[in-house]
């Protein structure tokens, strides 16, 4: 029998076929000041119904593993046993989000799976999920958490290209960039900056920075003169629109000459008129970071294709397919045209107006800006040591 996650992904293509992204269950744990940890919702809805005593014991253990000490928001991994089965747990604790509200969003995994593989995915869905708790009925929320569970599975299986775009599409992650563009910063100062610009009462700097470090954008080091662990950018990120060259070339073989010429003309017209803006960059990053939009985009990179073919190839449910296509059209990534098929019936064909790409590059601008900063404060030992650390890391990571 397929597990719930298997059912959600049956027939789906993921960015990396080698990744096993199949959680067993998802739990949302609430805290009641009188009785302790309370299970707010779970997916599947009938998970561990025969082992409620075990489940109640283990949700308390999950919650207290986070809340011990200073009870700061963040990610943790541990193991639990329910109904004689052992599970690895990937869990995120929100800290206190509203008055006395605090939650844990926890994934139960098989012991062979690495909880860290889910850290970025869980972190990205916590705020919308916990906001939904107070605005929805129980039935609506059960649907919401099931959709969220599916999304976590998809996010955990993203390609590096999508993960990089997600750093710029997510509001909290995006707020990291302006601070790091100025040079090295301590984790504590970065945390205060993120709380100030996002308005969040607490943030988990380690969870936010984890994908930055995994994808090679930053290095973290202890700096003696500061007495803290500091964060340094060693690679920067660019998200941009590019001509869909492969799709344009393939259009001549899969479309009739008139439609192919019309498509190429539309692409050239868009690229001639388009202007890059900060808002547009965020919009296309969001497209690349969305699993359904990304899968459709990846198909259309090769050639124009009709909607029914893409739906069948990717296995995207009709509702999600429609939403993803609407998003791609809204941000002028694709256009849609009707074409008369061999049977005489018309079908909808999607064309890639522009490709969305993401790249890492060496931040040469630091080589000038850091020296300027050093010259401004020649007697500041702490600032000088931060610059020296940053320049050394840039040297060690210079592309050769």
List the helices and strands and how they pair.
Blueprint (H helix, E strand, L loop, with lengths): L3 H6 L15 E8 L3 E8 L8 H16 L6 E9 L2 E14 L2 E9 L9 H17 L2 H19 L3 H10 L1 H4 L1 H5 L4 E2 H12 L6 H10 L3 E6 L4 E6 L2 E7 L2 H10 L2 H17 L4 H12 L1 H12 L2 E2 H8 L3 H13 L3 E7 L5 E7 L2 E7 L3 H12 L4 H16 L4
Antiparallel strand pairs: 1-2, 1-5, 3-4, 4-5, 6-8, 7-8, 9-13, 10-12, 11-12
Task: Please tag this protein with its features.
alpha+beta; 400 residues; 17 helices; 3-stranded antiparallel sheet; 5-stranded antiparallel sheet; Arc Repressor Mutant, subunit A
Can you put this structure into words, describing what you see?
It is a single chain. The strands form 4 sheets. This protein has a 5-stranded antiparallel sheet, sandwiched between helices. The chain has a 3-stranded antiparallel sheet with strand order 6-8-7, with helices on both faces. The longest helix is centred in the middle third of the chain and has 19 residues, at 138-156. With 400 residues, it is of the alpha+beta class. Mean pLDDT is 88; it is low at 1-20. It has helices at 4-9, 52-67, 119-135, 138-156, 160-169, 171-174, 176-180, 187-198, 205-214, 245-254, 257-273, 278-289, 291-302, 307-314, 318-330, 365-376, 381-396, and strands at 25-32, 36-43, 74-82, 85-98, 101-109, 185-186, 218-223, 228-233, 236-242, 305-306, 334-340, 346-352, 355-361. The chain has 3 domains: 4-157, Beta-Lactamase; 163-234 and 362-396, Orthogonal Bundle (Arc Repressor Mutant, subunit A); 238-359, Arc Repressor Mutant, subunit A (Orthogonal Bundle), CATH 1.10.10.10. The chain is 50% helix and 23% strand.
């Amino acid at each position: 029998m397929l597990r719930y996650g298997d059912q959600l992904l049956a027939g789906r293509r993921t960015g990396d076929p080698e990744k096993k992204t199949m959680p067993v269950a998802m739990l949302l744990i609430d805290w009641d000041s009188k009785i302790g940890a309370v299970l707010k919702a779970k997916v599947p809805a009938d998970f561990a119904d025969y082992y409620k005593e075990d489940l109640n014991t283990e949700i308390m253990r999950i919650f207290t593993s986070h809340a011990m000490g200073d009870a700061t928001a963040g990610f943790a991994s541990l193991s639990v046993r329910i109904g004689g089965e052992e599970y690895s747990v990937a869990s995120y604790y929100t800290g206190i989000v509203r008055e006395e509200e605090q939650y844990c969003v926890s994934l139960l995994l098989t012991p062979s799976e690495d909880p860290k593989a889910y850290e970025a995915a869980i972190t990205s869905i916590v705020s919308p999920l916990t906001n939904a708790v107070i605005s929805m009925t129980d039935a609506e929320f059960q649907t919401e958490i099931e959709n969220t569970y599916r999304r976590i599975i998809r996010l955990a299986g993203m390609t590096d290209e999508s993960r990089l775009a997600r750093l710029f599409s997510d509001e909290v992650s995006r707020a990291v960039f302006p601070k790091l563009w100025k040079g090295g910063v301590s984790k504590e100062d970065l945390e205060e900056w993120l709380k100030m610009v996002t308005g969040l009462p607490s943030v988990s700097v380690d969870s936010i920075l984890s994908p930055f470090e995994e994808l090679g954008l930053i290095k973290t080091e202890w700096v003696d003169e500061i007495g803290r662990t500091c964060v340094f950018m060693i690679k920067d990120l660019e998200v941009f629109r590019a001509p869909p060259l492969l799709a344009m070339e393939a259009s001549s073989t899969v479309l009739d000459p008139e439609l192919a010429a019309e498509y190429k003309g539309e692409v050239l017209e868009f690229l001639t008129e388009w202007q890059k803006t900060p808002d547009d960059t965020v919009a296309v990053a969001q497209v690349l970071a969305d699993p359904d939009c990304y899968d459709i985009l990846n198909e259309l990179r090769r050639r124009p294709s009709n909607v029914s073919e893409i739906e069948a190839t990717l296995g995207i449910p009709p509702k999600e397919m429609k939403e993803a296509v609407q998003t791609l059209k809204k941000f002028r990534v694709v256009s849609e045209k009707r074409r008369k098929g061999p049977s005489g019936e018309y079908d909808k064909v999607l064309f890639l107006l522009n490709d969305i790409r993401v790249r890492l590059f060496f931040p040469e601008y630091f080589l000038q800006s850091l020296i300027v900063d050093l010259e401004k404060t020649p007697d500041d030992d702490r600032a000088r040591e931060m610059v020296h650390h940053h320049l050394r890391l840039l040297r060690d990571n210079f592309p050769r």
